[in-house]
Design a protein that fits this description.
10 strands, alpha/beta, two-stranded antiparallel sheet, about 350 residues
C-alpha cells in the first residue's frame, strides 16, 4: 500500500513528459465538439471564432472552425479582424509566428452555408433581430445533420423562441460571450425547458475547454448579467432625469462606493443608448407586469436625437472615438440641482 502514492506520482511525471497529443490518446477520451461553426464575424463573432481556433491549434480541441458570412465583404472584414488581433499578439510576444499561422489555418472562411451542414456545434452571432434569427435557425434545422447543436450568442432575446424555430429544441442552448471575447472570461450558458441535459453539460464543458468560465442560467430575460445590469442603468438614467444627481456624481458614486470600474451612465454610453433602449423596450413589451423593466423618457429623447453615446460622439458624455470627454450638460447648465 505504501508504494501506491509513489507509483501514481511516477505515472504523472511520465505522462507530463509526453506530447499533448499522446497524453490525450493515453487518457480516457473526453467527448467534445470536433467541428465548430461560427455564423457572423462581427464584433462578437470574430472573437468567438478566434477563441475557438486558439483552442483548436493549441490543444487540438477542434479539427476545424467554419467561419460563415453570407456576404463576401463582411467575411473579409471578419478575417481581417482576426488577423489583426493575432498580429498584435505576435507583436506583443504573446504568440509565436508559427502559432499564429497554425491558428489561422484552423479557420475555413466561407460564404457557402452548405459548409456548415456537417459541423457538430454552431455558434450564431448575427444582429439582434428575432425574426432574422428564427429564419436562420429554421433553415439550419433543415440543412445541418441531426446531431448538430445550435447555440445563440444573443444577449437578451429568448432562447426558447429560437430553439422552437430550429425544429430541434433539445439541441439548442444559449452561449452569451462578453466583449471583447478574446479577453473577457465569462460565458453565460443558457438552457430552456427543452434542452437535453447531455447537450447542456457538453456545452458547459466546451466553454471551459476554450479557456472561459461558464455560468449556468435558465432562459430568463437578460440571463444573469444583463438582467441585473440593464435595469440598474435605467435607474441611473431615471436619477438624472428627475434631477436627483448629476451624470458625474452618479458615475463617481458607483465607482467609489460600489467598486465598479465605470459608472452606469458611462457604461450606457459605451454599450450604446440605442442598444439599451432596444433591450428594455423589448422586455417591457414581452413582460409588461415586471416592474423592474422601465424605459426612461430621457433615454427615448436621446436616441431620437441621435445621441447614442460612444458610437455617435455624444450621449451622456462627449466622445472622441474611444476617448470619453466631459459629461453633457456639466458646464452648460442643462442639469441643475436646486
Amino acid at each position: 500500500m505504501s508504494s501506491l502514492p509513489s507509483a501514481i506520482l511516477l505515472t504523472r511525471k511520465l505522462s507530463a513528459l509526453l506530447p499533448a497529443s499522446a497524453r490525450q490518446l493515453s487518457s480516457t477520451p473526453r467527448l467534445h465538439f470536433d467541428k465548430v461553426g461560427v455564423i457572423g464575424l462581427g464584433l462578437m463573432g470574430h472573437g468567438i471564432a478566434q477563441t475557438a481556433a486558439t483552442a483548436a491549434s493549441r490543444d487540438n480541441l477542434h479539427s476545424s472552425i467554419i467561419a460563415y458570412e453570407s456576404d463576401q465583404t463582411f467575411l473579409d472584414k471578419g478575417r481581417d479582424r482576426i488577423q489583426s488581433s493575432v498580429d498584435k499578439l505576435v507583436k506583443k510576444e504573446k504568440m509565436t509566428v508559427d502559432q499564429a499561422h497554425s491558428l489561422m489555418k484552423k479557420i475555413t472562411f466561407t460564404t457557402d452555408r452548405h459548409d456548415l451542414h456537417d459541423v457538430d456545434f454552431i455558434v450564431e452571432a448575427i444582429i439582434e433581430n428575432m425574426d432574422l434569427k428564427k429564419r436562420l435557425y429554421s433553415d439550419l434545422g433543415k440543412e445541418c445533420k441531426p446531431s448538430t447543436v445550435f447555440a445563440s450568442n444573443t444577449s437578451s432575446l429568448s432562447i426558447t423562441q429560437m430553439a422552437l424555430a430550429s425544429g430541434r429544441p433539445e439541441n439548442f442552448v444559449g452561449v452569451h460571450f462578453f466583449n471583447p471575447v478574446q479577453i473577457m472570461k465569462l460565458v453565460e450558458v443558457i438552457r430552456t425547458e427543452y434542452t437535453s441535459t447531455e447537450v447542456f453539460d457538453k456545452t458547459v464543458a466546451w466553454v471551459g475547454d476554450i479557456g472561459k468560465v461558464a455560468v449556468k442560467c435558465r432562459d430568463t430575460p437578460g440571463f444573469i448579467v444583463n438582467r441585473l445590469l440593464v435595469p440598474s442603468l435605467m435607474q441611473a438614467i431615471l436619477l438624472l432625469e428627475r434631477g436627483d444627481a448629476t451624470t458625474h456624481d452618479i458615475d463617481v458614486s458607483m465607482q467609489l462606493g460600489a467598486g465598479h470600474p465605470m459608472g452606469p451612465l458611462h457604461l450606457a454610453d459605451y454599450v450604446g443608448l440605442d442598444t439599451c433602449l432596444y433591450i428594455m423596450e423589448g422586455w417591457v413589451k414581452d413582460f409588461p407586469s415586471e416592474r423592474a423593466f422601465v424605459v426612461p423618457e430621457l433615454l427615448r429623447e436621446k436616441v431620437a436625437k441621435g445621441e447614442l453615446g460612444r458610437k455617435s460622439g455624444k450621449g451622456f458624455y462627449y466622445w472622441d472615438g474611444e476617448k470619453r470627454g466631459d459629461a453633457v450638460g456639466l458646464d452648460s447648465g442643462d442639469i441643475s440641482l436646486e
